[in-house]
Design a protein that fits this description.
signal; Porin; about 40% strand; Porin_dom_sf; single chain
Amino acid sequence: MKTALRLGLLIIAFWPGVPAFAEDKNLEDRLKQVEEELRQYRAAAKQSQDHERRDGASTASNEPGIGSLPEVGRDLRTSTAAPLSFGSSGSGRLVYAKPFVAAPKAIVGGYMDIQYRSHRKGVMETGDYNAIRNNEGVTNGFDQQRFVPFIYADITEHLKFASEMEIEHGIRGAGEIEISLEFAHLDYLVSEPFNIRAGILLIPIGKFNLLHDSPLNDLTDRPLVSQFIIPSTMSETGAGFYGTFYPGATGKLDYELYVTTGPCGYNPTGEPRINEETGTKNSRQRKCENTADGLDINNGKAVSGRVAFSPVLGIEVAGSGYFGNSSPSSYNPLSITAIDWTLQKGPFEIIGEAAWAYARGNSRAIAGNTFNSIAPGTILTGINTFNPLAAPPQRMQGFYIQGNYHFMPSFLTALSPKRFGEGSTFTAVIRYDQVNLNRDNRGENQGQLEQISFGLNYRPVEDAVFKISYQYMPKAFNPNSGQRIHDSALVVSAATYF
């Protein structure tokens, strides 16, 4: 049909010239030329039809992934092609027969940060070289602390996928680099008030554990309470629900509720992992000993949840909690409760968080311990504490409060509208941090940390930031000497989404 139409159009195009041909003495030669052109056109049309027929047969093949390999990633699979299954046939091309190759749905992004810090004391760790330096760390250095790729996907209108992989200190050796999935979960969207989530989940304790990305934060270092009481980033494998309600004309109520694997509060020898040096950091599931493979160390599960209420835009107050057994051989639950708040008014912002942790029985030996072979219930004097006469911590608490002021000087906008125009801003920051990692040891201040931070940052766009801050630390810790010290530091960093 297509060939006949093309021939007809060609004849019509030549038809006006036929009378002129009749008067031309070279008419016979010109008619032969037209016949030759028609013959060549028929041959080209037949060849094109043959190609279309072969391509159609290839597209309709029941063997997935067949075709020119460079084109496989661009050609959409037709409705007649068989879906990939264990019944599919093929060889090396099967690796290209994935559904996302024909119809990509995933979005790849992430963030990174880099920092330089200079301390008054040698608190920065130097690994095995500490022995050479008489257990004294270095005072300053660069570190690309985090490189974090994200993968998000809309599988269907109601089925979503989200994941985040964190690579910390990527330039370091294999024994020091940390690579882990911060979260990776499927969401099935039922309605705004009720949705289902399953996978590796961010535990909803406090707000910072949910929004901890470096480009979001106006200071380089995370709050102390979010490092030692709520060990951000804290995530566990499990499932649960989340949703949003709208009480009143301007109110909003968000909630999350999950059941997860639970904490890992003890080494395989029975030694507590919660201590005065690192707080609850090492009780996170991903920090568990390799022998546990990140799985549950007992038959118990943890429950966590957060409820956040916003009466009007710019104000949010939330309460959250976490509870789960941390022992493999006894009932020693770890509970963490927290409140957080956000108050915004024009260029001013006040945010903060307070948390309390209770590691029940963390100060006593559990059944089946082998690290000291003492009877269960015996107080572990001098273990995981800086005071040799004290017991490991059970109760901890901490908080931070932070004030932000966003501004842009008009003279900078006039000087360079492209660099300091719409979308760019400066932020002045002040934050006060305090934690106590052993409230049971009331006669000593060994578990206390205190810090005041003054900062200024510049955002050329909202998703990228350059930061500088000064930290005054009247109560700090030197991991190289194992002592509480007085310290201060200058920290410069940059972070961006990509």
